[in-house]
Design goal:
three-stranded antiparallel beta sheet; 1 helix; 3 strands; 19% helix; globular
């Protein structure tokens, strides 16, 4: 399983002011869409899943 890098469907199509995510069997990666050759954060799938649950629940809303 490897999704390749992708941006949220809610991101503006022409914008590079986003983050990109990649899901694979090794975990999840997150990188700055403006710096694609730069570093990426890496997370275990369980940690990424827990983050998504909290984000969808509004835990990080300002």
């Amino acid at each position: 399983m490897d999704t390749g890098w992708f941006k949220s469907s809610r991101s503006a199509a022409a914008s590079d002011n986003c983050v990109e995510v990649r899901i694979s069997s090794n975990g999840a990666g997150v990188r700055d869409s403006k710096e694609r050759s730069g570093p990426a954060f890496a997370f275990r799938l369980s940690v990424w899943g827990a983050f998504l649950v909290e984000a969808k629940a509004g835990r990080f809303d300002r």
